[in-house]
C-alpha cells in the first residue's frame, strides 16, 4: 500500500451517484473546489441497477398494456413482447454499464474524480484507496458530504448464500428472462420486477409476508396493483413467509411458512435496504459504523459542523429525486456557510429540505401505476391532523375512457379540515405518474381548496380527476 501526499479541497463528496453528482455540481457552481470519490461507476445505483434500467424494462410492458385497451391496436399487439429487443434497449439506457458519459459531465463541472474506496479518517479527512492499493488523503476546508446510498439487506435464511439469489441489481441487469421466478417482497422493487419479468416471459410467483402490497401507500393502491398482477398471470401470495431456500441441480426451492415448496429458476429478494456506511470510517469521527446518518434540514449530520449526509444514507426519503433535491439544498447550505453568509434554514427556505416532511412524491411503475405525494389518510391522522379522505373512481373522468377501454383506477385527496389544504394525494391507474406533479405543487404550495377550484383541468384529460375530487369534497 502506497500513500500519497494530502490534497486539500473546499469540499469532498463520497459517493458518485446522482446525489453526489448534484452536491458536487452545486458546490462547484458556487466556486468551491470539489473532489468526488466513487468506488464503482459514476452515476451510481440509479443509473445502472435501479431507476433507469428498471424503467427501461417496464416502459414496453406498460405501452403494450395500454395498446391492448384500444380497438385498432389491440388486434396487432396480442403477441408476446420481443424480450431480446427490450433487454437491448435497457442496455442502451445503462450505457452498457460504462460511465464515460457521466465522467465527461462531471469533468465539465470542474470536479476532480478519485476512483476508489473513500473512508473518513478523522474530521474533514477522507482516505481514498485506489484499485491498485494507492492511498490518497483528501482534506476538506469546509465540508465532507456522504452520499453513499444504501445496499441490499438480505434476510438471514438457511441456505441463502448457496442459492446465489437475485437482488435488485441482478433483476435489472439480467441477460435473459428466467422461465420461473420467485419474487420475495411486497414493495416497489418487488412489484415492479414482478410486472416486468411476467410480461417478458417469466412465470412469476410473488411472496409477500404482509397482508398486501405497497404498504406505505393508501391500501387501495396495493389492492389494485395486486389485482392487476394476478390478472397478468402472477401468482400473488400474501401472508406468506419464506423459511428456507436451496438450489438443487440448478433449481431453486423455497419453503414457505405453511410448508409449501415452490420451485423456480431464480429467486429475487426485495426485502429491504440498509445504509451503505459499514465501511465508511464513521468510527474515526465518533459515529456508529453501519448506521443511518441523522441530519438537520440543511443535511448537516447531527453533532457536527462539517459532515453532511445527503440522499438515501440519511433515511429521510429513499428516492432518487428526493436525494437530488437534498443535494441542491446541501450544496447551497455548504456554499452559504463557506461564505459566512446567512443560512436560510427556516421552513421552505433555500437551505432547508422541508419537502422531506410530508411532501414527498413517488411513482410506482407497475400496471396500473401508483403515484402519491404527502401523507396517507392514516399518516395524517397519526400526525394529529383533522382530515377527511375524498375518493373518486377514474371511471367518472372522460379522459380515462379515452385513454383505454376498461380503464380502472382510483384517486384520493386527504383534506386538512382546519386549514383547508391538502395533506396528501394518491392516484392509481394507467398513466397517473404524469399527474403527480400537479398534486405535489398543491401539497407543497399548501394551496387552499377554494383556490384549487380555479385551477381548471383541460377536457378531456386524466387531470380532470381534480374536478371530480373537488366536487366530491364539496358535496360530501
Query: Could you report the average pLDDT, rounded to the nearest whole number?
Result: 97
Domains, number? 3
The CATH topology of the largest domain turns out to be: FAD/NAD(P)-binding domain
The CATH superfamily of the largest domain is identified as FAD/NAD(P)-binding domain
Distance between the termini: 72 Å
Quickly name the level 1 CATH class of the largest domain: Alpha Beta
CATH architectural category of the largest domain? 3-Layer(bba) Sandwich
Enzyme class: oxidoreductase
Pfam families: Pyr_redox_2, Pyr_redox_dim
Family: Belongs to the class-I pyridine nucleotide-disulfide oxidoreductase family.
Protein name: NAD(P)/FAD-dependent oxidoreductase
Topology diagram in text:
Blueprint: E1 3-14, H1 18-29, E2 34-38, H2 44-49, H3 51-67, H4 83-93, H5 100-109, E3 112-115, E4 117-120, E5 125-129, E6 135-146, E7 150-152, H6 160-163, H7 168-173, E8 180-184, H8 188-199, E9 203-207, H9 219-232, E10 235-237, E11 242-248, E12 251-256, E13 261-264, E14 266-269, E15 273-275, E16 307-309, H10 320-339, E17 361-364, E18 369-374, H11 377-382, E19 387-393, H12 398-403, E20 410-416, E21 421-429, H13 436-444, H14 449-452, H15 465-475
Keywords:
3 domains, globular, FAD, FAD/NAD(P)-binding domain, NAD(P)/FAD-dependent oxidoreductase, seven-stranded mixed β-sheet, 476 residues, five-stranded antiparallel β-sheet, Enolase-like, domain 1, 21 strands, alpha/beta
